[in-house]
Design a protein that fits this description.
Elements: E1 8-13, H1 18-33, E2 42-47, H2 53-67, H3 74-82, E3 84-88, H4 96-104, E4 113-118, H5 125-134, E5 145-149, H6 157-167, E6 176-178, H7 186-196, E7 210-218, H8 227-252, H9 261-273, H10 283-286, E8 287-293, E9 295-297, E10 300-302, H11 305-309, E11 319-324, E12 336-341, E13 348-355, E14 370-376, E15 380-388, E16 396-404, H12 415-425, H13 434-453, E17 460-462
Parallel strand pairs: 1-2, 1-4, 2-3, 4-5, 5-6, 7-12, 8-17
Antiparallel strand pairs: 7-13, 8-11, 9-10, 11-12, 13-14, 14-15, 15-16
Helix pairs in contact: 1-2, 1-12, 6-13, 8-9, 8-13, 9-13
Bound molecules: NADP nicotinamide-adenine-dinucleotide phosphate (NAP).
Length: 493
């Protein structure tokens, strides 16, 4: 369904930064190439440095050349480049925002609906909103005004609330677009579609049939040159508080009355708020952390996290796992095991659901059914079922039904393209509501706090290995453990 987009101007703060270079400018270009940008739409990039329009346009060309190595359509390029302008906002200039307002007031060039994308440091989110308000650039009297806040929205519940209090002095909730770019991924949107558009799945998607759910995000990469950022953040804050809890919400939510932005968000909020608080006095049974030690990845020796950081006293986790329960009738008693890790044996983002034992057990050790939704690198749905081994005897084995969600010729859309399009359409269903952000921080904050206080050396796992055996402590039952791979046999240990 293609939605109507009003003519608008995208004001891009931090346009010279990494995110803009790698995702936003290329994403906007691809939307233009797909004919999805309104003809009049303009992009005003805002940065601290004095840069001429000519130099800025050359810089954009460099971004596109770097991204699209096989080349791109020259006609689209000409059209795209015509849309682009630059405004210098030096921090020393007290009139910088007033000047920006004057530039934007030229309605012959700039459509007057304004979307501000704050691709700047998190500490600058609130000050930029204050300054926009001070020059009356957030007033929606005649045209809409929308503000995109990049991740992270706060670093804990109090700081998220403080940021919210600051920006809502000037903005209504409907004007605020909080990013969790995972939600822009087609494979994540597919969770909801596959659940609710198939008669087959929904009836068994509950505690009567499901033994437990695993939500996994593992990487083979280490922290690279982001050691300082990572040590101030950790796996729980970086991945679980945001992307993984959103994936869980889409997996566990009830069906919205209608697939409207309000309907979807309302159900996600309900399920996030129904997750039981993690008991800090029994943390060991509910949460597990570890750090990668030196090891081998892709045949190469790699150093451990503490070595890369150059600080052996750090207790910051590169592996974080939680056991969660959702207190509602659908999920009563079903454990959700969620984990994220760097430098594991493979890179994989998926949802794995194990079903309860079947009433018919043939022999010992018959496998249970699994249903898996692959998000990355493979977008797929896989199901493991028991089937008779041909022959005279009655014996079963596990076979895997495997369907790729992606087919030859399908469009491959980057998450940011979808998010930018939704921003211009005024559809915030793929952006976070403040209640979701708060519920997510409320859940992880006590664990982050307890882990930060506990200065004992953290469990080490060799880079390139499977999940540490020690993480078994969080599992409810002896026969449950991480499914280490989406492939057949990936639950064998
Ligand atoms: N990169 C990613 O993939 C990614 C992923 C998730 C979230 N994010 C979030 O997206 C936002 C932008 O990320 P980024 O990686 O693009 O950041 P970045 O490269 O560090 O910088 C973004 C822009 O901020 C301005 N800036 C940098 N240092 C500054 C300073 N000391 N004072 C004032 N302005 C400064 C610069 O613009 P000017 O010099 O032109 O003013 C720069 O282009 C951040 O909030 C980040 O948390 C990024």
């Amino acid at each position: 369904m293609t939605k109507q987009i009003d003519p608008c101007t995208l004001v891009l703060f931090g346009a010279s930064g990494n995110l803009s270079r790698v995702k936003l400018m290329p994403g906007l270009f691809r939307l233009d190439a797909a004919g999805r940008l309104p003809a009049e739409m303009k992009i005003l990039s805002v940065g601290r440095g004095e840069v001429s329009r000519e130099a800025w346009l050359a810089d954009i060309k460099g971004m596109l050349d770097a991204k699209f190595k096989k080349g791109y359509d020259q006609q689209v390029f000409e059209r795209f480049i015509e849309r682009n302008f630059y405004h210098a906002n030096p921090p020393t200039d007290p009139n910088a925002f007033q000047r920006m307002k004057e530039t934007l007031s030229n309605d012959k060039v700039f459509p007057q609906n304004l979307a501000y994308f704050l691709s700047v440091r998190p500490s600058d989110f609130a000050p930029v909103v204050d300054q926009l308000a001070a020059v009356d650039l957030l007033n929606e009297e005649n045209y809409w005004r929308r503000v995109v806040i990049e991740k992270p929205f706060g670093t804990d519940l109090p700081s998220a609330k403080a940021l919210q209090a600051s920006i809502t002095k000037h903005l209504k909730e409907s004007q605020i677009y909080r990013i969790d770019h995972y939600l822009g991924k087609s494979a994540l949107q597919n969770i909801m579609l596959q659940r609710f558009a198939n008669t087959l799945l929904e009836p068994i998607w509950n505690k009567d049939y499901i033994d437990h759910v695993q939500i996994t995000n593992t990487e083979m990469l280490g922290v690279g040159d982001r050691t300082q950022f990572y040590d101030a953040t950790g796996a729980l804050r970086d991945m679980i508080q945001s992307h993984i809890l959103q994936t869980l919400a889409l997996t566990a939510m009830e069906m919205p009355a209608a697939l409207t932005p309000e309907g979807i968000r309302a159900e996600k909020i309900k399920v996030l708020e129904a997750i039981r608080a993690i008991p800090v006095d029994q943390l060991d049974k509910h949460a597990f952390r570890a750090q990668y030690a030196a090891g081998e990845v892709n045949g190469e020796q790699v150093p451990g996290y503490l070595e890369e950081l150059g600080d052996s006293s750090s207790v910051v986790e590169t592996y974080a796992a939680l056991k969660l329960f959702i207190d509602n009738p659908r999920w009563e008693g079903v454990p959700f095991y969620i984990r994220t890790a760097k430098r594991l044996h493979e890179a994989d983002t998926r949802i794995s659901i194990r079903f309860k034992k079947s009433p018919l057990q043939i022999g010992d050790g018959q496998d249970q059914n699994w249903l898996m939704l692959g998000i990355q690198p493979r977008e797929c749905i896989k199901m493991e079922i028991q089937s008779k081994i041909p022959g005279l005897d009655i014996n079963t084995r596990t076979i895997q039904l495997d369907a790729a969600n992606r087919q030859d010729g399908d469009e491959s859309i980057d998450a940011y393209e979808a998010l930018l399009l939704n921003l211009m359409e005024g559809d915030n269903s793929l952006y976070l509501h403040i209640s979701e952000v708060e519920a997510q921080w409320r859940l992880v904050d006590p664990v982050i706090e307890a882990w930060a206080k506990d200065r004992q050396p953290v469990h080490q796992y060799p880079a390139g290995s499977r999940d540490p055996e020690a993480s078994k402590v969080i599992f409810e039952h002896e026969d449950q453990f991480w499914r280490y791979s989406i492939e057949l046999g990936g639950d064998a240990h």
